[in-house]
Design goal:
The chain is α+β, with helices and mostly antiparallel strands. The chain contains two helices and three strands.
Length: about 80
């Protein structure tokens, strides 16, 4: 069995990539924006777990929109 290379889908599961300095979590209901740095979260948390656990403090909505900064480089 040969070496398995990471696909773009595998790399997208990590919340913080090596180049990522911070993320913004935007509430889908009230548009509240929170900036999160890597030192505020566990190192092994992935994007799905973070989105699933996140709850807006203003309106109580779940599943925020996540944007990484700087954006990961495209494979295409």
């Amino acid at each position: 069995m040969g070496r398995r290379y990471a696909s773009p889908a595998d790399l997208d599961t990590r919340l913080f990539h090596d180049e990522t300095t911070h993320i913004t979590a935007t509430c889908c209901s009230c548009k509240r924006v929170v900036v999160v740095t890597p030192d505020k979260l566990p190192i092994d948390i992935d994007r799905h777990d973070f989105e699933r656990r996140s709850v807006c403090k203003s309106c109580g909505a779940k599943w925020p929109q996540i944007v990484r900064y700087p954006a990961p480089k495209s494979w295409w």
